[in-house]
Structure prediction request, 104 residues.
Amino acid sequence: MGIPVYRFNLAPSGLATVRQLRSLGLRPGGQDVVGEISWRKGRRVAYLYDITKALPKRQATPAQLAAIGRALLARRTCSTCGEVKEYYIPRRYGECLGCSGVSA
Prediction:
């Protein structure tokens, strides 16, 4: 037999979607899906997890945060002129708008 399917806004308390768990500072933590919410005539679904079995969200390490910072800085640095821009360099051009000749 499959998992229970609930209509939108009719799931029992104690069950939450991944987004709802995230807002509570939790994550599914490898548990199995215990239910499903269905809307738009069954074309859209969201899986439900038991809140009591959920684990706390993991925190990024300082090294991971530093790596993310470097990656975001690289996305703002022009490969042609080397300037750091206030916007992310468009991937379609591979350089800042000034170097690519596109008007901002």
Summary: The mean pLDDT is 92. Strands lie at 5-7, 15-16, 26-27, 35-39, 44-50, 55-56. Residues 62-100 form one domain.
